[in-house]
Amino acid sequence: MYPKSHHLKTEILAGISTFLACFYIIIVNPAILAEAGMPFSAVLTATVLVSAFGSLMMGLYAKNPIVVAPGMGINAFFTYTAVKGFGLSFEEALGTVFWSGVIFLLLSVFKTREKIIQAIPSAIRHAVSAGIGLFICFIGFQNAHFIIDNPATLVGMAMFKDPITLTFLAGLLITGALIIRKVSGAIIFGILITTALAWPIGRWWGDAAAVNFGVSTLVNFTGFFSWPDFSLVGKADILGSLKYSYIPVIFVFTFTILFDGISTFVGLAEASGLKDPDGNPQNMRKSLLTDSFATLFAGLVGSSSGTAYIESAVGIEEGGRTGATAVTAGLLFLPFMFFSPLLSIIPSIASSIALVLVGSFMVIPLTKINWKKPEEALPSFLTIVLIPFTYSLSIGISFGFISWTLLKLASGKISEVNPILALISVLSLFFLWL
């Protein structure tokens, strides 16, 4: 049942908003895993299956407004480290994904992951939320090609007079105004309006800009239909992936998704207030079990690990508070097993606007950190800045754990460190060493 003041319409709009913020994974994940020798069309089908399965389970079972889909970053590890670095076949790599899912499941069944979340200090929880906010804002700016590569300074801003930059900023301003005016579905309207504004680029004006973006026109229509490809389903080499030399790969898969998931749940809970009476993320155990099953399922159907998506913050900001948001998003994934060409209509500058705006709302918990207490402020600061600077949730939160434990030790306050957090700090050091 929904609260009387809450409407199903709000949840559906929130689900659509979340889907529009993260649908890029349907194209990006196959593009990355294809580099590992996997058929693009088959990975696309697997990506849709994992996204739909994970999101529907999150909505129906865990009743949380959080989308689950193959994780970014871990798919790059799958291709460039597991397959090209360690020399696994993609079938063996899928097997390691499956086993990491089994480990997740065991950790969730025995409530180990819940104990880890409960051991995280409140200051680090607030820092994770802010770090995620900066991270998704950075991803949004990057996907919109507003923040670009600069050999001299690592990053820089695109030319202000670039038509794409101007269109992105116009869409950002319009969407921000809609949010301020409390227009229902503001983010959806913002994405659609920006798409319309981007249509002339490469057609009527700004040809060079579109080419520099990597396309001839920013808004493309490549057709309606493509058949799904199930050739990767059941291809995981489950027994062959249990070699002793592959243990580091399973460990990294496990550690990365474990802390990416924990970071996401904690960050979204802090930013949105979706917490239980004890201050932990709502329906935490069922959410963690969903995360586990999504990874196990991903290995079986032909994709890298599934995980909770930080872009779910978009739907939460739109008012999503129940599982109906995740169910809506999950159902929206399914048609794109057949209609994936339609995704080319919405350019990345349109979907990126949602990430930038929502990022700004996620830094609110910064005010809850005691910045005058160095042993809390320094680990919080490292967590906040290293999540976006290293492009990794797991690395950012690992440094937060380690620095928190070491500073408490150095200041003679080791008794304030939860034993589970101390153990996790040691494992974090091992993870960073690998």
Automatic annotation (TrEMBL):
The keyword Acetylation does not apply. Pfam families: Xan_ur_permease (PF00860). The chain crosses the membrane at residues 12-34, 40-60, 67-87, 93-110, 122-144, 164-180, 187-205, 211-232, 244-268, 345-366, 378-402, 414-433. Keywords: Membrane, Transmembrane, Transmembrane helix, Transport. GO terms for cellular component: endomembrane system; plasma membrane. It is found in: Endomembrane system. This is AGZA family xanthine/uracil permease-like MFS transporter. It comes from Algoriphagus aquaeductus.
